[in-house]
Amino acid sequence: MMNFEIINRKNLTEGIVEMDVHAPRVACAARPGQFVIVMACEECERIPLTLVDWSCRGGWIRLVFQEVGVSTYKLGMMDVGERLYHVAGPLGNPTHIDKFGTVAIVAGGVAIAAAYPIARAFKEAGNTVVSFIGARNSRLLIYRDHIAKISDEVHISTDDGSEGFKGFVTQLLEKRLADGFKPDLVWVVGPAPMMRSCSVVTKRFGVKTIASLNPIMVCGMGMCGACRVRIKNEIRFTCVDGPEFDAWDVDWDELLHRLSAYREEESYALKLFLESRGIKVSR
Amino acid sequence: MMVKPKTRIPIPKRPAEERIKDFNEVAVGYTEKEAIEEASRCIQCPDKPCVAGCPVGVDIPRFIKFIREKRFEEAYKVIKERCPIPAITGRVCPQEKQCEKMCRLAKIGQSIAIGALERFVADWAEEHGIYIDKKPDQQIGKSVAVVGSGPAGIVVASDLARLGYQVTVFEALHVPGGVLVYGIPEFRLPKKIVNEELKKLKDIGVDIETGVIVGKTVTVYDLLKEFDAVFIGSGAGNPRFLNIPGEDLGRIYTANEYLTRVNLMRAYMFPAYDTPIHKGKRVAVIGGGNTAMDAARTALRLGAEEVYIVYRRTRREMPAREEEIANAEEEGVKFLFLVQPVEFLGKSKVEALKLEKMRLGEPDETGRPRPIPTGETITIDIDIAITAIGFNPNPLIPKTTPEIKTDEHGRIIVDKEARTTMPRVYAGGDIVVGEGTVIEAMGWGRTAARTIHKDLTST
Ligand SMILES: Cc1cc2nc3c(=O)[nH]c(=O)nc-3n(C[C@H](O)[C@H](O)[C@H](O)COP(=O)(O)OP(=O)(O)OC[C@H]3O[C@@H](n4cnc5c(N)ncnc54)[C@H](O)[C@@H]3O)c2cc1C
Ligand SMILES: Cc1cc2nc3c(=O)[nH]c(=O)nc-3n(C[C@H](O)[C@H](O)[C@H](O)COP(=O)(O)OP(=O)(O)OC[C@H]3O[C@@H](n4cnc5c(N)ncnc54)[C@H](O)[C@@H]3O)c2cc1C
Ligand code: SF4
Ligand code: SF4
Ligand code: FES
Fold first, then answer.
1. Where are the domains of chain B?
2. Are B250 and A261 inside 8 Å of each other by CB?
3. Is B335 in the A-facing interface, judged by CB distances under 8 Å?
4. What's the CATH number of domain B16-127, 3.30.930.10, 1.10.1060.10, 3.40.50.2000, 3.20.20.210?
5. CATH superfamily of B239-391
6. pTM of the shown model
C-alpha cells in the first residue's frame, strides 16, 4: 500500500520546491520521462508532475515544482509527515533512450529538474550529453549541479545575463548550432513558447528534436481528452500517446491556446486563495 | 377475466424549475404507500416474462409480492440474490428496454414501474439499516485481482469475496466507481449511494487500491504472479472525436472531460473546489445517448441559458433512457434533430456551430435508419460545445499485454464465460461490449465470477 507521505521537502530557490513522497508502487515502475498525477488534498485539482528521481528500494519518488497557481501553492505548503491525498502513476510513455551519439538536452526554468533523469539516462546509454539550461536569472538555475554531473558539457543562459549567456536558452542553442555544433538529437522540455522556438531553430539546422509536452490534464489515463494535441494534424492524447512527440510535428499554436484556456479562472482562484492565507504577491 | 389495468403510479420528481437550480436528485422516489399501490398492480404472471428482460435475472414478481405485503426486508433480500447494487440499478437501468419492456402489462396498458420499486426497496433498506452483506466465515485461500471499479468490477469483487476469495480491486482514479462516479451526474445518481455500495464491498473484505493504473503502475503479468486470477473491467472511456474543422478551438469539451470536471472534481463548486469549468450561456451538446443528456442537463444546472442537443437522427432513434430524454425536455433542453455538425467556427474560442440538415434513409447495420446529408446547412451561435458521440475501449491494458487479443474495435475478445485469450485472465463490461449499460456490465461481472470460481476450484 502507498501512503503518499512527504518524507523530504526543501525550497530549491524562491518559489520552487523539491519534495520526496512515499509511493513504492510508482517508484518501482518509474522510467525516465514519465510523470504522476498528484492531488494535494481532496478538493484539489489533479495536476501532472514529472518524476525527477525515484528509488524502488527506498519506496519514494521525487517531484520538483514551481508555485504558479492554487494547486502548486497548496502542494508547496505541505510539510514533511503530511500525506498527499492522491498520487497516480507512473503515467505516459518513457523516453526512448538509445545510443544516438551526441544528445543535446535543452531545458528552461523549473523543467531543468524534469530534464535531469532523461539526461542521466542518455548518458548512461553511452551518449555524449551536451546540456543547455536557462532561467530568468541565476538564482532560478535549479539542478545545475545535478545536470553538470552527468553532462559532458553544460551551457548556461539567463534572461537578465546574471550568469552565462544573456538571452533565452534557445538563442544559446541556436548560436552553438551556427558555430558548427552537430548533435544527433535534441531533447527539449520547458514552457511551450520556449519549446516552440527550439523546434523552429532545430528545424532550420535539420536536427531531429523530441519535445516533452505539458498541456492541461485531468485524468492522465486517456479518458477525458483534456490533454489532446494535434500531431501531424491528428488528435493525440499527451497522457497516453506522449508526453514526448517529434517537436516538428506539434501544432504549437493549438497547445498554447489550450494552455491558456483557464487563465481567468486560475488567476481569480489564486487571488482568493492567497488573500485567504494573508499572502501578498505582486504578479 | 377482463380487468381494466390501473395506471402506473408516476415516480415523484421535483419540479423542473426548481431542480435545474441545483445538483440534487431529480426523482424523489416512492413513499411506502405509493410503492404498495404500484406493487398491487402486478398480476404475478406465473411465467415471469419480466425476469427474462433483466440481464441479471432479478426475481421481479417475488420481490414485488413482498412489497405488496409490506415485507420490505424480504423484498430486499430477493433483489440482492441477483443484483448487488439495487439502489443504483433501480435508478439508472434503461428499464423500458429491459425488464419493463417484457412486463405483460406493457402490452395492455402501462408496465409495472419495476425500476422505481427496486429503488424504493433499496432506499428503504438503507434507511432502516438492513445489512445483509456479510464477510464469509471461511476463506478459500485464493486471491483475485480486479482491474477497474465500475459496475463490472464491483460485481466480480462482491461475488468472489462472498465465496471466500481474497479480492483486491485496482482503480486508476482517486475514487472507485467508474462511470457511476465520474460520468453519471449527482442529480441522477447521488454519489452518496455509490459510496454506500462501495462501503459494503469493503465490509465483506474487499481491498480497493486507488491510483493504480494497470499497464503502468503494475502489469497484468505482475498481477498474475501475485494473484490466482485477474479480471479486467476497465471500461470504454476513450472518447471519440468528430474530426471536423475547428474541433481544437477553445471551449470544446468531450463529454467525459466536462462530466469528469463536474462530477469527479466538483467544478460546480469552484472555487471551493479547485478544478475550474467554463459555464457558458449557449451550449451545444452533440449526440443522443445518456452521456449527451447528462452533459446537457449539467450545462443547464451550471447556469446556461440555451442548451441544444444536436442529433443526426430523430427522437425515436435516440439511444438515451426514455426517462432522461423526458427529463431533459421538461427542464428546457432544446432538441435539434436531423442535423450533423460539419464545422466549429470561431477565432480562438468556439463561437458558432455549422450543421448540415439530414434526412432518414434505409436502415444501417445497427437497424436504425441511416441519416443522409441534404446539403443544406444552418449555423447556431454557441459559446460551449460538448461532444458526446461515443467511446472506444480503453486501450491501455491490451497494448501492454499482447496475449490479450482484441477485435477490430479494440474490444477484448472473450468466450461466453468471460475468459480472454490469456490463461487466468477474464474480462467483462464495456471493455468487452463497447458501450453497454450498468446492468449489462454487472451481468458480465457475475458470469466472470462464476467462471473464475469454476476454473480455480476444478484444478
Ligand atoms: C506531463 C507534464 C509534466 C509536468 N511536470 C511538471 C514538473 O515537473 N514541475 C512543474 O512545476 N510543473 C510541471 N508541469 C506543469 C504543472 O502541471 C502545472 O504547473 C500545474 O498544473 C499548475 O497548476 P496550478 O493550479 O498551480 O496553476 P494554474 O492555476 O493551473 O496555472 C497558473 C499558471 O501556470 C500556467 N500553467 C498551467 N498549466 C501549465 C502547464 N502544464 N505548463 C506550463 N504552464 C502552465 C497557467 O497558464 C497559468 O499562467 C507538468 C505538466 C505536464 C503536462
Ligand atoms: C455519462 C454516462 C451516462 C451513462 N448513463 C447510463 C445509464 O443511465 N444507464 C446505464 O445502464 N448505463 C449508463 N451508461 C453506461 C454505463 O455507465 C457503462 O456501460 C458501465 O459503467 C460500464 O461498466 P464497466 O464496469 O464496464 O466500466 P466503467 O464504469 O467504465 O469502469 C471502468 C473503471 O476502470 C478504471 N480503469 C480503466 N483502465 C484502468 C487501468 N488500466 N487500471 C486500473 N483501472 C482502470 C476506470 O477508471 C473506471 O473506474 C452511461 C455512461 C456514461 C459515460
Ligand atoms: S436490475 Fe435493472 S433490468 Fe433488472 S430488474 Fe432491476 S431495474 Fe430491471
Ligand atoms: S410481467 Fe409485469 S405484471 Fe407480470 S409478474 Fe412481471 S412485473 Fe408483474
Ligand atoms: S488527461 Fe485525460 S485524456 Fe489525457
1. 16-127, 143-237+393-457, 239-391
2. yes
3. no
4. 1.10.1060.10
5. FAD/NAD(P)-binding domain (3.50.50.60)
6. 0.92
Q: Show residues of chain A in contact with B210, CB under 8 Å.
A: 86, 88
pLDDT string in tens for chain B (459-residue length) = 445 557 899 899 999 999 999 999 999 999 999 999 999 999 999 999 999 999 889 999 999 999 999 999 999 999 998 888 899 999 999 898 899 999 999 888 899 999 999 999 999 999 998 887 777 878 889 999 999 999 999 999 999 999 999 999 999 999 999 999 999 999 999 999 999 889 889 988 999 999 999 999 999 999 999 999 999 999 988 899 999 999 988 899 999 999 999 999 999 988 889 998 998 999 999 999 999 999 999 999 999 999 999 999 999 889 998 889 999 999 999 999 999 999 999 988 999 999 999 998 888 887 888 889 999 999 999 999 999 998 888 888 998 999 999 999 899 999 999 999 999 999 999 999 988 899 999 999 999 999 999 999 986
The CA distance from B321 to the nearest CA of chain A, in Å, is: 23
Q: For residue A47, give Cα distances in angstroms to A218, A220, A275, B2, B255.
A: 7, 9, 22, 65, 20
> Smallest Cβ distance to B210: which of A71, A86, A240?
A86
Q: What is the CATH number of domain B143-237+393-457?
A: 3.50.50.60
CA distance A99 to A85: 39
How far is the alpha carbon of A90 from chain B, nearest alpha carbon, in Å?
6
Cβ atoms of A211 and A254 closer than 8 Å: no
The yes-or-no answer to whether B143-237+393-457 and B239-391 have a common fold is: yes
CB contact under 8 A, B257 and A2: no
Q: Do residues B180 and B441 touch, judged by C-beta distance below 8 A?
A: no
Chain B contact for A49 (CB, 8 A cutoff): no
Proximal ligand: closest to the CA of A215: 1
Write the burial class of residue A94 (CB in 10 Å: 0-12 exposed, 13-18 middle, 19+ buried): middle
In whole angstroms, give the CA distance from residue B275 to residue B293: 22
Can you tell me which atom of ligand 4 is nearest the CA of B102?
1
Q: For residue B362, count other CB atoms closer than 10 A to its CB.
A: 7
Q: Locate all alpha helices (DSSP H) within B312-374, ordered by sequence.
A: 322-331
- Say if B225 is an interface residue toward chain A (CB within 8 Å): no
Whether B210 and chain A come into contact, CB under 8 Å, resolves to yes
Of the bound ligands, which one is closest to the alpha carbon of residue A227?
Answer: 5
Helices (H), B279-423: 290-301, 322-331, 396-400
Asked if residue A183 has a cis previous peptide bond (ω within 30° of 0), the answer is no
Question: Which of A49, A74, A83, A223 to mutate to probe the B interface, most B CBs <10 Å?
Answer: A223
Tell me whether residues B250 and A1 touch, CB distance under 8 A. no
Distance (Å) from the alpha carbon of B236 to chain A's nearest alpha carbon: 9
Domains of chain A: 6-91 (2.40.30.10), 102-216+251-259 (3.40.50.80)
